[in-house]
Amino acid sequence: MRTWGPLVAVCLGTFMLLLDVTIVIVALPDMHSTLGASFSQMQWVVDIYALALAALLLGAGAAADAVGRRAVYVGGTTLFALASLACGLSTSPGMLIAMRAVQGVGGAAMFATTLSLLGAAYQGRRRSVALGVWGAVSGAAAALGPVLGGMLVQWLDWRWIFLVNVPVSVVAVWLTLRVVAGGRGKGSGRIDWAGTASFTVFAGVATFGVVRAGEEGWTSAVTGWTLALAVLALVVFVVVERRVARPLLDLRLFLRPSFTVVMLGALAFNAAAFGVLPYTSVWLQTLLGMSPVHAGLSMLPLAGVSFVVAAVGGRLLHGVAPRWLLGGGLVLIGAGTLAQAVLDAHSSATTLFAGLAVAGVGTGLVSPALGGAALSSVPPEKAGMAGGAVNTFRQLGYALGVAAFGTVVTSGMTDSLRASTHDPAGAAHTLAGGAASALRGSVPEGALRSAFASGLNGAALVAGIVGIVGGAAVLLLMRPSGGGARGRAAGGATSGGATSGSATSGSATSGSATSGVRL
Questions:
Q1: What's the pTM?
Q2: Which end of the chain is more exposed for a tag (fewer CB within 10 A), N or C?
Q3: Least confident of 222-226, 282-286, 351-355, 448-452
Q4: Signal peptide position in this chain (predicted)?
């Protein structure tokens, strides 16, 4: 128990927190019918969790250095469990969104400490084995999210996608307290609260502005003032990070072209690969009439192929420069997403399979290599910070992608419905929100199917362009690192060292061969 107990404790938490990124996708229609959630509220149910992870990962890593990694992990898991219980008991969309945010806070504390706990618990070959298992569990969580979510929704109730976290969390906390060593990190004990707060405001307000743009329009006063506030918060963050003694993110790293392009690649990766999937799930269930389980299984070409490619490619492509894996993988993700922009009123789920599989190949190349690329782009002493930053940009890319592609989906639907209803914008939001049944009778079924297909095609087109542009940027701008920096950085990131990023370099640098899909 004491040999592999720490690995089990950490993997339980990792599985839960990453599962909850994707598990809600197939539950959106049922949440709408039960709680009466609007389209924008459903976006926030998906977005707010990833947003909390993105905004708080770096700060949580610094807190772990100050007060101890085990304490932060146990506290985060406990908060995650309580928030999951509250999510399952939610009686309104507002309550569900608020508790998803709290869930994200707990998830950030867990995610920020997973690798450093493993690094401190294992050495040598056991560490390699532990990191490989952790990577496989991370990939399995994302792959199983839609499927497990569909089973729980169909056979029990959507509330069980959250309630199931409670007993698992209890086991994880008990096991952690029993077999994981305590102790404080070697950090200075100072937490950059101002930097954490300003970055949180920037990420949240920017996402809110993009969501509001889908309802009010990009030229509305509300959208303009909201995005202006986001820019102001970003400026405050930059000023704070330039002046504070121990910044969350050393902005001088962005003077390195390779580091900058890897961060942009991480942003583009999660947006392009996963940002359209929530709307695809709504289309599968409300327009094609699929069950939640069937809808979840329809997304397996992406998750399954990426998991296999990551596992096999880790051995066959060992030694290939990260530039080619990231750049080529992002281009494949973009191409696969573009291949999904072919829907019409008569399309079925199988229409998406080829595109999802191609995107899965790209995802299987990018996901394992992304962390190593980030670490190789900085000096070894900054490895931990780079690891935390790349996970932050990934989660932010997913949150912004879901928000931005939602506006594209409703815009395409609105244009398509102009000839079928006197309120095309209202009908588009109703349709995208999973309430197609409310429009049947007043709008022809063929028009509804054409409208949703048009919206998804537009979103897939934009997502595909994001992926291809991101891949081209990596291929053109990323340069090889010198002096074996990658190996030194990876070692630093997983050694359980003191830096906050050592806790957050969830890019699975060592276990990347089996990391699979991780959101």
A1: 0.80
A2: N
A3: 222-226
A4: none
